[in-house]
């Protein structure tokens, strides 16, 4: 399926619904035979979620790369960030800023070049500073979040852009004259890594529907077995009827396992990202998630001794319930910025011997660290000691990391997943269980 297929594209497949989420519905190109033909945002998922990190500008013929530099364009975007700002800021023209352009080069397709060097082509790729504040793609919708279908990225071509000259010398014919026109996206964004996930729906035996996304390793071989990491997202990333796929885009955990730069290992990993409807108790939602996981493990070549859970915020409640109710299902769990495990759950987890690593921000503004992260760790550790384990043995089974404010490059101290996933040793620890 094309990486530019819109959210409306739905295909029935083996009794499930396959959905390919796009970032925007295409606007009419309509710029005529000359000038800018298309503007296509390119997004990546960073520690704090998805944002526009490049723009592909298409022209009617091959562009002379020698006439381009960072001053050729201005790229601006909304400063809105769902973690901090009211959604009304999206439409506020005063809440915008220019992005810092890192490099400009040409390409034959709207894709990035690893070497940042020009290849012959009709596309100009404008790479942006991923750390500047603009270009976040996730937006609030009530108590939930979703991928914004109408990105606010705008491109102004400040200088003339020329085609390749016929004999390779000179500037070549004028392709597009300089203008102060701000060009918005004309096609849905290309969402690096997120577009590589398959988006489906699962219906339980009792009739409950749960959307989910999964990613198989490149070169997946059904004759081999692979570890699987189950990503359990936060409350706002649950399914609300219109936000399918946001559990992949809103935070780093789902896509990190595809990238050696995050994991520090080239081991192939399957990722499964359920998107529970936030209906009923956490235990009931955990039951739905487990039924999906078991069906998924029957369909794909999953190593039954290497099934892991990784959670963000509310996702911890599903993990605690599953760890206590289905002992041995998970071979390790990573709980980031989560709710507290109850005393009964802690006892059951210690009895099952499932290794757990808990991380939390010291100044988490949503979940007090003392009554959540610290409490979970202390309860599980004490449960191991009550079973006769030595302190050293308990330390080996339940680990705890607390992050100071300096660990968060954005001031959201609740998203402990951000600094957690920036620590390769923790991700490698999970895969080693």
Task: Name some characteristics of this structure.
single chain, Rossmann fold, five-stranded mixed sheet, alpha/beta, eight-stranded mixed sheet, Immunoglobulin-like, elongated, 433 residues, 23 strands, disordered N terminus
Shape: elongated
- Mind summarizing the main beta sheet? 8 strands, mixed
The H-level CATH homologous superfamily of the largest domain, spelled out, is Alpha/Beta hydrolase fold, catalytic domain
The pLDDT mean sits at 92
Q: Percentage of helical residues?
A: 10-25%
Brief sketch in words of this structure:
The protein has 433 residues and is of the alpha/beta class. The chain is built from 10 helices and 23 strands. Helix 4 crosses helix 5.
Question: How would you portray this structure in words?
Answer:
The structure is a single chain. Helices cover 20% and strands 28% of the residues. It has 433 residues and is of the alpha/beta class. It folds into two domains: 24-191, Sandwich (Immunoglobulin-like), CATH 2.60.40; 197-432, Rossmann fold, CATH 3.40.50. The strands form six sheets. The chain has an eight-stranded mixed beta sheet with strand order 16-17-19-18-20-21-22-23, with helices on both faces. Helix 5 packs across helix 6. The longest helix has 18 residues, at 282-299. It starts with 9 loop residues before the first strand and ends with a helix. The model is unreliable at 1-32 (pLDDT under 50).
